[in-house]
Structure of Phosphatidylglycerol--prolipoprotein diacylglyceryl transferase:
Amino acid sequence: MVLALRCGPDTVSGVSAPVAASANALLTTIPSPSQGVWYIGPIPLRAYALCIIAGIIAAVWLGSRRWVARGGREGTVIDVAVFAVPFGLVGGRLYHVATDWHKYFGPDRDPLDALKVWEGGLGIWGAVALGAVGAWIGCRRHGIPLSAFADAVAPGIVLAQAIGRLGNWFNQELYGGPTDLPWGLEIYRRIDPETGLADPIAGVAVDHTPVAVVHPTFLYELLWNVGVCLLVLWADRKFRMGHGRVFALYVAGYTAGRLWIELMRADEATHLFGVRINVFTSLLVFAGAVLYLVLVRGRREDPEQLKGRPLPGDDDVDAADPGAADPGAAAPKQTAAAATEDTADADESSADGSGDRAEDDRAEARSNGTDGHKNHEG
C-alpha cells in the first residue's frame, strides 16, 4: 500500500485556528483513510483484520524459506503456526485488555467489548509470550528444537508487525502528538452513517478536513520494523547465529525502537509513575534480550536436528535409494554388531582353511610313508 501525500493549504480549510495555523505551514501531509471498514452485504471487511492476516502470511512464507534453508522439512513452519498463531492472538488481546482494563471494565463500560479484536488492540508482548507457548507445543509434536525454530521465524515476525501497523493507520489510532513536520498525519472526524454518532474506528470521515495533524508513529514503527528485519537477516547470514540468538537480536532491535516511539504516542494508555507502562516493558525486555545475546554461545544447530521425528515416507525413500536423503553422503557405515559378526565369520573361515590344510598334509605323509615301505620290501 502507498501512503498518498496531500499538498497545499486548501486541505485544512474550515478547521479550528490552532490546527489551521499548524497545517497551513505544512508543505505536505499524510491523509488518513476515509474509513477502515467496508461492507459486502451484511459482512464487514475490516482493513485492520486484513493487515493482520497479510502479516501472518508474510511471516509464514519467510519463516518457511529460512527453515528449509537451514535443513528443516518443508511444511513444518505451517504446522507449528497452526498452534502459534491462535495462541499469539489470544495472548496479544489478553495483554491489551490487562494493560488498558479501564477501557472495558468500569463505569459506562461494556466488558464484552474486550472480545472485539477487530476494533484493534493486540499487545505484541502478550502475542510473543503466548505465541511462544503455542510454538513450543508444535515443536514438541514434530521433535524439533524451539530455539532453532524461533531463529528461523524471527525476521518474519517483525515483518508481520510492520505490515500490521498499516491496520492502525486505517483505524486512526496509535498516533503521536501535534506536529508541523512535512510528514504529519491528518486525523479526520468519523461518524456512523446510520446513527450520526462519532465512531473513529468503524465510522466514515465526514470530510477531509483534518481535526488534527499529528506524528505518524504507526509509520515510524513500520519503518523501524522493516529495518530490524533487514538487520536480523544480515546478521544471521554474516555470523550464522543459532540457539535462539537470532530471535534475541530481533527482540532487542524491536524494543529499542519501541521505547522512543512509545514516548511519542499521545493515545490513551495505562501509566505507571507517570510513564506509559509499555515503556517499562520495553526496557525490561530489551535488557533481557541483550543479556541473552551476551551469555548464550554455541554453533548453529545441526541440520539433522531440524528434520524432527521420522515420517512414514522416510523409510520408503531410504529403501529405494539410501543416498537419496543426502546425495553427497558417503556409503553407510557398518554397525558395531555387523562388524563383529563379519570378523567372526572371517576368523571361522580362516580356522576352517587351516584345518583342511593340516588334514591334507597328514594324508600326504601317510601316503608317502606307505609307498616308501613297499619300495624297501621289493
